[in-house]
Structure formats: C-alpha cells, structure tokens
Design a protein that fits this description.
By secondary structure, this protein is of the alpha/beta class. It folds into two domains: 197 residues, Rossmann fold, CATH 3.40.50; 226 residues, NAD(P)-binding Rossmann-like Domain (Rossmann fold), CATH 3.40.50.720. Helix content is 42%, strand content 15%. A six-stranded parallel beta sheet has the order 3-2-1-4-5-6, sandwiched between helices. Helix 6 links the parallel strand 5 and strand 6. Helix 1 packs across helix 3 and helix 13 packs across helix 14. The N and C termini lie far apart (52 Å). Bound molecules: uridine-5'-diphosphate-xylopyranose (UDX). Uridine-5'-diphosphate-xylopyranose binds next to helix 10.
Length: 432
Amino acid sequence: MKICMIGTGYVGLVSGVCFSDLGNDVICVDKDKNKINSLKNSVIPIYEPGLEELVKKNYKARRLKFTTNLSKAVRSSNIIFICVGTPTKKKGIGADLTQIYSASNEISKNINSYKIIINKSTVPVTTGDQVEKIILKKNKKKLFSVVSNPEFLREGEAIRDFIYPDRVIIGTSEKKPSRILKQLYSPLISKGAKFLNTSRRAAELIKYASNAFLATKITYINEIANMCEKLNVNVEDVSIGMGLDNRIGGRFLRAGPAYGGSCFPKDTKAILDTATKFKTNLSLIKSVIKSNENRSVLLTSRILKLLNNNLRNKKICFLGVTFKANTDDMRDSSCTKMIPSLSKRGALINYYDPTGEKKEFKKVKNVNFKSSIKSACINSDLIIIHTEWNDFKSINFKKIMNNNKFKIFDMRNIYSYEKMKKDKINYFSIGR
Ligand code: UDX
C-alpha cells in the first residue's frame, strides 16, 4: 500500500520504517529539512536499537522515502498517518494540538483521491471529530475517512512492539477503512496480534486509559515498596506474588524511581484535562500524578538521610540519568528533579550515562559528566543506580573504588540485596 507518515519522531519514523519493512511504499514527511537530510543519509535522530539498520535496508530498497514536501506525499499516498507531537500545553495540563490541526489543514488541500487519514499520535478524545471537520471544509465526505489508530510503542523496544503488538486498535465506524487497515496490518495479525475495530472516540480513549493505568500500576507498586521498607518485606517478593494472579500480571510491577518519559506524565495530565472538559472526576489518576511527583522528593530525602543530612561537598555519583534504559530520552526523568535539588544543597555530582552528556545538566552547578563508570564512581560517598542499563548490572564496586566508605543506593534493585550484604557493601535499594 502507499503510505504517508507525517512526522518523523518515535512514532512516525518507527511505524513508517516498519510498514516499509512489511513491503509497503512509505514516504516519511517532516518540515525539519535537516532531519530529512540526515534520514536520507541514514543518520537517525533518535536512539532506538535496530532502527538504523531497518532505515538503511528499506531506503536502499526504495520502499522508504523522506521528504519535506507534504502535498506531494499526500497526493501520492492513500493512507495518511498523522504522527506529529502532542506535548502538554505550556499553560495548563491539556495536549497541544497545534501540529495536529496544521497537518489536517495541509492534508485537506491535497485530497486528489480517496484517503484514509489516521491519527496515530496520542490525541484527546474527540480530536478525530475536529480533524474530520477541518477536512470537510474543503472536501466531500465520500473522499476521505478519519480514523484513530493509537500506537503502543515503548521507547527502546519500539520496533519489537510494532512487529509484535498485543493488539491493533482501529477506531472507525466506516467499513471501508476498517477493511483496508485490517489488510495493512494483516502480517502482524497473522503473527498473533488481536485486531479490534471500535468507535473512533473509544480508540482515542483506549490509548489514554491504557497509559494512565500503567502509570497507576507503577505508582501502586512504588507505594507498596515504601510500605515494604517499614515492614522489612522484600517488594520483589510482593511483585512476584501479586503477578502470579493473571488478573494482575507481573509486568509494570517493578518498583523504582518515579515514572518518567514522553508519555506517562503527558498522558495522565491530558486525560485529566479531558475529564475536566467533560465534567467528570478522575480522582485516582489525580492522586497517581501527585504520588509520582512526590516520589522524587521522597527519594531525595532518602539520599539526604544516607549522607547524614549534610550534603555540603559530599560526592554523589549517578549511574544512568535517562528515564529508563535503552533510550537517550531525558523527558521527565526523575533525576532531572533530584540532581538540581542535590546540587542546591551543596553536593558535588558526577554522572555517567551510556548515551552521553546531557544538556539538562549543563547549567546545574557542580554536576559533571564522566566518560566511564569508574571515573564517575571513584571517590564517591554515594553511588546511585538510577537507570537499569545492562552496563550497570555486573560492576565490581570493590575493585573500582579505592575505599570502603562508599554507599550504594540502587533505585532499580538490579543487585542482590543478600550478595551486597555478604560482600560487606553499604547497599540500599527500593522496597527491600
Ligand atoms: C509508554 C508505554 O509503555 C507505551 O505503551 C506507550 O506507547 C508510550 O508510553 P515508554 O514511556 O516508552 O512507553 O516507557 P515504559 O517502558 O512504559 O516506562 C515508562 C516509565 O515507567 C519509565 O520511567 C520506567 O522506568 C517506568 N517503569 C516501567 C517502572 O518504574 N516500573 C516498571 O515496572 C515499568
């Protein structure tokens, strides 16, 4: 099929490349000329394992193209995915839909044959109705369909999540686009993905409700971990025990620092905004947002306590600063709150991250990027494991450290509590 992806961020680029790898002709459009030129040279602007190879392979096979010319791309395609950003508004908690509406306007000028216009970006419920209104201003209804097809891609696992999705959700009440899209996704459905055709608004809400639920699940186990610390219970045992109930499931039950990323913080706020607009109260999600925001404060006070409530000139090492492993994304990473707060209290902070130095800390006093685990850890009073990169899973701390005074705060519980105690390492973790 002839597909046009508008927007070449995580969603647009990964989905576009994967669609081309399934044999479709895909044109990825972006207004950022530099980004398009980089992509034409297989220079990938995002850190996503496996993506570069797929871009090279499909670009070489001429199934995948990149352009800044939206009109031409829309005219030569019959399936148009809108994959532009929908960040939280600068004022308020709702999603900023400027890019959605501008893409819709551009599309509406280029409908030279029947088009399926698909919102793959995460958009508040009823956005599809607004997009349809914009297109209707210039086109007869029979020439297009507006469909919701939310993505469920996790950063760092996006290709796998595209190829092996649990489900493909198609939000439309029209038979023609549903049939065509079922055919487009048939290679994934034949591998076991469930196909669900529902209303457009239901599909829009499924996305937000799913992310808000996952954020709730994580916040739930984080609070249970706080309780475990008081009861001298190992939260890992509780997670495993709970997860054995297939109504609960063991995934997304790993206690850690506050959840972050480009989705959970944004989507929990956006669904609240929709609830307010439609005069309903999502009190549980409100408390999840509050609990998660408090978690960085809670963990910072834990750090303070570990250093006898005096951070002046204390040396703290952060291993990993991104919001999770296998991504370079710093958006809403819990350490973007913890590190400035520790620096303000006089701590001297070194950090190492496999994805390199971060602009977020350039202006923060006494925070330095180190190019190796050892140089970041050496002479530290406290080593904090913030992100669960594989690089941090078998460090011989006794070997790299030149004294026994140091403490470890493992925020991802990647080390065995018992082994650390046996090795007489001053080890602290989450919920254990
Ligand atoms: C999420 C959803 O998983 C994905 O389906 C959606 O399309 C986009 O948003 P992502 O934000 O990339 O994906 O990361 P995810 O792996 O979900 O982790 C989100 C946050 O939760 C991270 O900060 C992670 O560290 C944290 N997390 C995740 C936990 O603390 N514990 C867990 O068990 C799982």
